[in-house]
TrEMBL record:
Keyword flag Nucleotide-binding: yes
BP GO terms, sorted: cell division
Gene3D superfamilies associated with the record: P-loop containing nucleotide triphosphate hydrolases
CDD domains the UniProt entry points to: CDC_Septin
Main location group: nucleus
InterPro entries documented for this protein: G_SEPTIN_dom, P-loop_NTPase, Septin
Organism: Hymenochirus curtipes
Protein name: Septin-7
Length: 216
C-alpha cells in the first residue's frame, strides 16, 4: 500500500494532554511497604519522606509495638500537591526480626503481597472494571541494622524470597552512627551480597527453564 503524508489537522496530537488530564483527575495510588527490625527509624523516615504526619507523635514506640508474631498493618493517607492527588498506602510489618527464632518470619509478608496480586487479578476479571483499586505493593523499603558487619542471614534470606515479587530498596538505617569509612564498607558489602543473590536466582531460573524445555 502506498503511504500518504497528510498535513491537515485531525486532533490526535492532543491525545497525550487528554490522557494527562484524565490521570490527574482520577489521581494516583501508590503502596509502599516498610520492613525491618524495631527501632530503626522506619516511621520517622516515612514522615520525613512524604512531609506528613502519617505516624503521629503519640504513635507507640518500638518497645510498645513489638509483636510475638509478624503482623501486617496498613495506613492510608491522601496527599495533594499542585492539583494532583496521591492515595498513599503504607504497609508496616511490626514484629519482623524481633523474635529469638525468626524462621519464616517473611511468610506473612509474602502472603500479603500475593493476596494483593490475587485481588487485583480478580478485579481485572470482572465485567465492570471502572472502580478497580490497585493495592499491589509497588515498592518495599528494607531497613538494615547499622551493625557494621554487612548483611545478616535474615536480611539475605528475606531479599532472596521477595526480590521477584516486589521492588526492594535496601536502606542502612541510622547510617550517621557509622564512620564514613564504615559506611562505605557496609554499602560495598551489601551491594556485593545483593549481586550474588541476583546471580544465584538467575542461575536457578535458567536451570529450571532448561529442565522444562523452555530454552532451546
Amino acid at each position: 500500500a502506498q503511504q500518504k503524508n497528510l498535513e491537515g489537522y485531525v486532533g490526535f496530537a492532543n491525545l497525550p494532554n487528554q490522557v494527562y488530564r484524565k490521570s490527574v483527575k482520577r489521581g494516583f495510588e501508590f503502596t509502599l511497604m516498610v520492613v525491618g527490625e524495631s527501632g530503626l527509624g522506619k516511621s520517622t523516615l516515612i514522615n520525613s519522606l512524604f512531609l506528613t504526619d502519617l505516624y503521629a507523635p503519640d504513635y507507640p514506640g518500638p518497645s510498645h509495638r513489638i509483636k510475638k508474631t509478624v503482623q501486617v498493618e496498613q495506613s492510608k493517607v491522601l496527599i495533594k500537591e499542585g492539583g494532583v492527588q496521591l492515595l498513599l498506602t503504607i504497609v508496616d510489618t511490626p514484629g519482623f526480626g524481633d523474635a529469638v527464632d525468626n524462621s519464616n518470619c517473611w511468610q506473612p509478608v509474602i502472603d500479603y503481597i500475593d493476596s494483593k496480586f490475587e485481588d487485583y487479578l480478580n478485579a481485572e476479571s470482572r465485567v465492570n472494571r471502572r472502580q478497580m483499586p490497585d493495592n499491589r505493593v509497588q515498592c518495599c523499603l528494607y531497613f538494615i541494622a547499622p551493625s557494621g558487619h554487612g548483611l545478616k542471614p535474615l536480611d539475605i534470606e528475606f531479599m532472596k524470597r521477595l526480590h521477584e515479587k516486589v521492588n526492594i530498596i535496601p536502606l542502612i538505617a541510622k547510617a550517621d552512627t557509622l564512620t564514613k569509612r564504615r559506611q562505605f564498607e557496609e554499602e560495598k558489602s551489601n551491594w556485593e551480597t545483593q549481586q550474588r543473590i541476583l546471580q544465584q536466582n538467575s542461575s536457578r531460573t535458567l536451570e529450571k527453564n532448561k529442565k522444562k524445555g523452555k530454552i532451546f
